[in-house]
Design brief:
Elements: H1 6-15, E1 31-32, H2 33-39, H3 46-58, E2 62-69, E3 73-80, H4 89-107, H5 109-129, E4 132-139, E5 141-142, E6 145-146, E7 154-160, E8 166-172, H6 180-193, E9 196-201, H7 208-213, E10 217-220, E11 224-226, H8 231-241, E12 245-247, H9 253-265
Parallel strand pairs: 8-9, 9-10, 11-12
Antiparallel strand pairs: 1-3, 2-3, 4-7, 5-6, 7-8
Helix pairs in contact: 1-3, 2-3, 4-8
């Protein structure tokens, strides 16, 4: 999309209050890209948010700092351009260092591994409650067919006890939305294997209609679900930078009901 796109203009207007108060004074808080995209996901697609903040940098409304972290690679931060002065910039850089230390905490490989395994376990347990049997894990093969066009696979494959519904499940317990290329590959795998696609994810709004058009279901939980033991980290991430994270030992009731209704309609 071009920068003249009206959606980008809408996002720019949404972003302004994060950096300037009602009296036009600069707010002394930096935001990084994924944080802004997550905070605004109900209103704007992530790529629109990125283009909007980039435009605001071009217009010299925001300043941009790119910094390296240990586990997350490079992270791009934005803050009000009025604060980009020799007197205040060191203070802003100190704020940014404090935030990227938090980013490194939740980006540690051990945390990512725990998040993935935890949500996979919760989804598998709920599938069994809903009458499914897990027939394949981390696989690209089902019955007599095997996907070989790429090295991708599905997190697991499940068959309903009715015999009327077999699904390919992709689990993503991440803050960012799945990339379009990966999404399309998973949809192609499911179609090739004769499976209905199910994406069990924190958020996937940009692609819900695309998944539905393939006969699939977007199983959305809205929060990133941590296992027990991460109570302090999730509390800090929510309070300090507003991320939708929580510790849960079962899936949200509303999302379970929606999935149950979809299964009933298709069996």
């Amino acid at each position: 999309m071009q920068n003249s796109d009206p959606e980008i203009q809408k996002a720019r207007n949404t972003i302004h209050p994060y950096f300037t108060d009602n009296y036009g004074r600069p707010l002394r808080k930096p935001y990084y890209v994924t944080q802004l995209q997550t905070l605004l996901e109900d209103r704007h697609f992530p790529w629109i948010v990125y283009q909007a903040v980039s435009k605001l940098v071009e217009e010299e409304y925001l300043s941009r700092i790119e910094t390296a972290t240990k586990y997350h690679g490079r992270v791009v931060f934005f803050f009000n351009k009025q604060l980009d002065t020799p007197a205040y910039r060191p203070t802003m850089e100190k704020h940014i260092r404090s935030v990227y230390r938090l980013i490194d905490k939740y980006s540690q490989p051990t945390v990512g591994d725990a998040l993935g395994k935890h949500l996979e376990g919760l989804v598998k347990a709920e599938l069994r409650v809903q009458g499914f049997r897990i027939v394949g894990t981390h696989t690209a093969a089902y019955e007599s067919r095997e996907w070989t066009r790429t090295n991708h696979g599905l997190d697991f494959i499940a068959r309903h006890k009715s015999g009327e519904l077999s699904i390919g499940v992709e689990v993503k317990n991440t803050l960012p939305t799945i990339e379009r290329e990966e999404l399309d590959t998973k949809l192609e795998i499911c179609e090739y294997l004769g499976l209905r696609p199910v994406f069990a994810v924190r958020w996937i709004k940009p692609y819900i209609e695309r998944i539905r058009s393939r006969g699939g279901f977007s199983w959305v939980f809205k929060t990133q679900i941590y296992p027990p033991g991460y109570e302090q980290l999730t509390k800090t991430l929510y309070q300090r930078i507003g991320l939708p994270v929580t510790v849960r030992t079962e899936l949200p009731e509303k999302s379970v009901r929606l999935f149950e209704s979809w299964v009933e309609r298709n069996t």
